[in-house]
């Protein structure tokens, strides 16, 4: 039986069989993805208040063969939360399931429902003198269920890992309405297949995560932050390894920035700090954090000194919290400048860390050969091999003039990525934007297995139809 | 079609269709598990030399409906590698696939085949001035493919995670002969379902891991090691949190030991060190590691001082490498003493870290109430909430006299574990020993999903029949 469009009659059935207060017509905010790439259509928004209501919704959807698009904060960048074609489906938002159930400083565990906003998770951990390290631009509106469903990354992955590494257990509703009660708080549990890891990153196609138990960490007692000018990405990589040798896992951030980022800020965000008199071709924002007595500044200096003959040109070390925030503002406002300029094509790629310099060396000239009237702003999480590699019009140009080149640019970036053993989606996921890329670049064996798993857990294809796997 | 016993005719077919040099009759070493709990039967041992031969074996097994038991180092403690009943199956050992393909210090990645012995992986990393942190008693004979298949734990999990956390990618053969080419070296890759995490810990029931790319870390430049006497497990836990506040992720080991462990050593391993004049009721082996300039001893002292009024009674800090090794010898020789005494029942349980004291307080009296003629040696990875909780005969007694009490003791330990939200297999897995426990204590939703996944990827039930899931 194919999926049925959620027409007026079927909508009526939902309203009759459940508390109608949980249903409404979704306003436009639910249907647009943040970069304006897609506008979806959905005739019905369900906002269940607890696990039981989610189960009931899923069972009814099953009975009527109606698709469900799970929705958390709506901040995903690949259209995983926005359905644009296929039989009209229900939007299921977890926003009302937003209780923090427990914060246990002794266990270093926080248990919360899927609809809690990421910044609220961070704040609850901080209130218990602990750190929840997942940190990303959209943290003020992203919800933890979506962060887990997409295995979100961000600026502290180098030390703490992706969202999946921060999660001890999940509670989830599977496509047949079965509840997976996996909210354990265990650091070790080798009892059968790791369903948690299968659900995390499956983008709502295998289950709806309704709650999670999350790892907390000691809050940093000391910090040291530097903006380091390096000769080139190769020197940045050398610096990373020297730093690790000195300060090891205390490195919480290692963010590469190119001159174009600073220029974009100067052009579009003039109130953003410009810490250097002359914009450096390449620079790295480094931050360390530790417990008491870590003497991080001293050790950071020692590491920088050891790197001085190896491509480190200059370094500013933050002398105050204000200066630290200025350094971070450079990194964090680059995406804002990017948006104001308007990218022709944005890429979230990863390659093995050691291949980052080669990736940059190869890709730029290839793109320039297609027409030099572009600007490339390459920045990102060097320690993870993850670059945000974005292509923009020449100064004064408009992205609309470049529409015809979008595909060629995207293909070029993805082909170099693939040739270097990389990934065309490092942290944003597949959603609906990259289903074709997954088919093209994904391992065929993996695709076969993914399809078999999808069929096994969701034979009707009810959950997030068209996302991740088209068929 | 049910599985066919691998009789002489079918064996002949294998030998005819492939190079017969890879087949032999398995000697007894392959058929016994280390604790002597099971002796398996298998009429044919295959020792393929490369991926292609594994694929061919799997395809032939498929054609003939013959089961395959994957075999790595044979050191598992739950019978996952030993088939005792059901239609005779082929033993497939990866021991000849033992090449280290690459050690890349810049990427901090090591790529090797599944048959490489764990100690050899560690040594190859060390030769590149790096650390591969997976470390456990059987490292001299365990093979990395088995460590991954069972998601092995060990003594450095607190800082570095389980085997799954140390693995960036796997190459594996699925039950239909499909190759999953997932040997990426990426720190971030959000392209579809995480098949790697599904295979890791599935104990050879979903795929045969043939190679892996592994994470390396900076080698420790400084270390500090202490044996700390604490009032009770509660005080040990308080110490752990104070330590984390001071030295954070530099804690590489935090191992709890009870007086019984020291007494067992005195009784059965008299050449083992006894660092204390009087055996402490409870003690913790703490080790820290860091990069250059970590001043670990100083910071360790500060943390211990902060804990002095909170249940820390005494502490010995290793003043030399020799003393450090003595401290470790206490911890590492306890399993040897245990073996010499002979446990009635051994348990590898985990509970939320904060529940460890309660677990200990509740379980002992319950067991004693069944008959006080027992001794309990409880030790393990407190930082992970993982205890090896082993029950022994009274001094001079023999385990054979206690056979009738085995089940009651096991059930009691597992029931308390379950009541505290714990796991009846923290690091050893399910294998064939604990299939009943999984059925009893596992989440029903998880079991349903596991069965659906098993059917989807291995509809004939060829891979490791009877392990993890009985049906």
UniProtKB/TrEMBL annotation, chains A, B:
Protein keywords: FAD, Flavoprotein
Name of protein: FAD-binding protein
Organism this protein belongs to: Algicella marina
Gene3D superfamilies assigned: 3.30.465.10, 3.30.70.2190, 3.30.70.2740, Uridine Diphospho-n-acetylenolpyruvylglucosamine Reductase, domain 2, Vanillyl-alcohol Oxidase, Chain A, domain 4
GO MF annotation terms: catalytic activity; FAD binding
InterPro entries, per the entry: FAD-bd_oxidored_4_C (IPR004113), FAD-bd_PCMH (IPR016166), FAD-bd_PCMH-like_sf (IPR036318), FAD-bd_PCMH_sub1 (IPR016167), FAD-bd_PCMH_sub2 (IPR016169), FAD-linked_Oxase-like_C (IPR016164), FAD-oxidored/transferase_4 (IPR051264), Oxid_FAD_bind_N (IPR006094)
Domain named FAD-binding PCMH-type: residues: 38-219
PROSITE patterns named among the record's database cross-references: FAD_PCMH (PS51387)
């Amino acid at each position: 039986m194919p999926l049925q469009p959620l027409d007026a009659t079927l909508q009526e059935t939902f309203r009759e069989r459940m508390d109608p207060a949980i249903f409404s017509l979704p306003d436009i905010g639910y249907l647009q993805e943040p970069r304006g790439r897609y506008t979806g259509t959905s005739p019905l928004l369900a906002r269940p208040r607890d696990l039981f209501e989610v189960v009931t919704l899923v069972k009814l959807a099953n009975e009527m063969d109606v698709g469900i698009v799970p929705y958390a904060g709506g901040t995903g960048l690949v259209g995983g939360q926005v359905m644009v074609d296929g039989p009209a489906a229900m939007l299921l938002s977890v926003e009302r399931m937003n209780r923090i159930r427990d914060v246990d400083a002794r266990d270093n565990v926080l248990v919360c429902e899927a609809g809690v906003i990421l910044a609220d998770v961070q704040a609850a951990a901080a209130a218990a003198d602990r750190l929840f390290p997942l940190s990303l631009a959209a943290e003020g509106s992203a919800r933890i269920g979506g962060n887990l469903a997409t295995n979100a990354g961000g600026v502290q992955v180098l030390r703490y890992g992706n969202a999946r590494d921060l999660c001890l257990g999940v509670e989830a509703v599977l496509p047949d309405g079965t509840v997976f009660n996996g909210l354990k708080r265990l650091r070790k549990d080798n009892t059968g297949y790791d369903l948690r890891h299968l659900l995390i990153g499956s983008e709502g196609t295998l289950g709806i995560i309704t709650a999670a138990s999350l790892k907390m960490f000691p809050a940093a007692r000391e910090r040291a932050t530097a903006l380091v000018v390096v000769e080139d990405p190769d020197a940045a990589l050398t610096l990373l390894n020297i730093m690790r040798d000195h300060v090891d896992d205390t490195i919480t951030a290692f963010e590469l920035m190119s001159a174009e980022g600073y220029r974009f800020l100067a052009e579009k965000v003039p109130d953003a700090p410009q810490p250097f008199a002359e914009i450096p071709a390449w620079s790295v924002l480094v931050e360390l954090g530790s417990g008491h007595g870590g003497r991080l500044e001293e050790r950071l200096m020692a590491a920088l000194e050891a790197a001085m003959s190896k491509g480190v040109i200059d370094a500013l070390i933050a002398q105050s919290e204000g200066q630290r925030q200025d350094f971070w503002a450079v990194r964090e406002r680059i995406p804002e400048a990017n948006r104001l300029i308007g990218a022709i094509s944005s890429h979230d790629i990863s390659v093995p860390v050691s291949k980052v310099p080669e990736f940059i060396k190869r890709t730029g000239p290839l793109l320039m050969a297609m027409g030099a009237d572009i600007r490339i702003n390459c920045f990102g999480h060097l320690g993870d091999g993850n670059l945000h590699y974005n292509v923009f019009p020449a100064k004064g140009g408009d992205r609309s003039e470049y529409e015809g080149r979008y595909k060629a640019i995207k293909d070029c970036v993805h082909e170099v990525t693939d040739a270097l053993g990389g990934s065309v989606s490092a942290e944003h996921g597949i959603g609906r934007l990259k289903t074709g890329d997954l088919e093209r670049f994904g391992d065929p064996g993996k695709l076969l297995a993914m399809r078999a798993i999808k069929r096994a857990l969701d034979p009707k294809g009810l959950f997030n139809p068209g996302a991740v796997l088209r068929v």
